[in-house]
Amino acid sequence: MLPAALHRLAACQRTLIVALGLVPLVMVIAVCLPALVLLPALPGGVARCSTLITLFRDWTEAVLTKSR
């Protein structure tokens, strides 16, 4: 019985790691949404907004690829 339970836990291990890794990412993106809405209206804001989006994309990619 124990090996079967361990096998089921091993099968969902990557899913749990990705889910735990994405929680901080989702929280940061949710907090930054007002900035992403308002930045393009400010001088130089489009470049800063693009930088934020690039950082979020890189962070997401790192979480998904390093969870193996």
Structure keywords:
68 residues; mainly alpha; elongated
Would you write up a description of this structure?
It is a single chain. With 68 residues, this protein is mainly alpha-helical. The protein has helices spanning 2-11, 13-38, 45-65. Helix 2 packs antiparallel against helix 3 (45-65). It is built from three helices and no strands.
Topology:
Layout: H1 2-11, H2 13-38, H3 45-65
Helix pairs in contact: 2-3
Strand/helix succession: HHH
Helical content stands at: over 70%
**What's the mean pLDDT score?**
83
User: What is the rounded distance between the termini?
Assistant: 26 Å
Count of separate DSSP helical elements: 3
The low-confidence parts are: none
Structural class, by secondary structure, is mainly alpha
Task: From the alpha carbons, calculate the radius of gyration and give it in angstroms.
Answer: 18 Å
Strand content of the residues, in percent? Answer: under 5%
Largest sheet: none
Task: Kindly state the number of beta strands.
Answer: 0
- Which descriptor suits the 3D outline? elongated
